Amino acid sequence: MINILKITGWVVLLTSMIACSTQRESIEKIEKLEIELYSNSKTMFNPQTAENLVSEYEAFITAHPKDSLAAPYLFKGAEVSMGMGSSYKAIELYKRVYTEYPDYVKAPTSLFLIGFVNETQLKNLSEAQKYYRKFIAEFPAHTLIKDAKFSLSHLGKSDEDIIKEFEAKNAGATQ
Q: How many Å separate Cα 77 from the centre of its chain?
């Protein structure tokens, strides 16, 4: 009986050590890709590196969903995806941040960014409207609330139309 407990203890210890080693290797790989992607301002953006980084973020989250780095990595993956123009991937990852990590400080921002990506990249104004309204309803005191209200009130308007509105507003204020 004591031998079985000792063996079980050793198995648990070895499994834990292997998991920590794998986790550390994964973090190191992510850090290396982040450096490669962000530090070379003299070279052109490398989409393959960005895709590899997003894949590594997702692999880490799958293997370690409760880790303190999971939510930040998921958010970073969404940011990289949005920056690459991988709009659907960005929305998918922002939705995961919002739903899987609702207590994460950037969960509300993720909800706003779902609307933003729908508006600016996909030109899906009905989805943008839906998410901006949801954001406004759920986070009325958030720092992005003015941005959400502005975006919602100007959905579908061209930059020229928005500029004309501001000019007319300013002209009326000076009279």
A: 6
Distance between CA atoms of 45 and 120, rounded to whole angstroms?
A: 21
Alpha-carbon distance of 102 to 34, in angstroms, equals 25
Q: Is residue 8 part of a domain?
A: no
Q: How many domains does the structure of the chain reveal?
A: 1
Domain hosting residue 101, numbered range: 23-174
Question: Does any domain span residue 9?
Answer: no
And the tokens for 69? Answer: 């780095």
Over the stretch 98-145, which tens digit does the pLDDT of each residue have?
999 999 999 999 999 999 999 999 999 999 999 999 999 999 999 999
Determine, yes or no, domain membership for 102.
yes
Q: CA distances (Å), 9 to each of 16, 18, 23, 108, in order?
A: 11, 14, 21, 42
Cα gap 70→107, rounded to integer Å:
13
Contacts of 22 (CB under 8 A, 6+ apart): 63
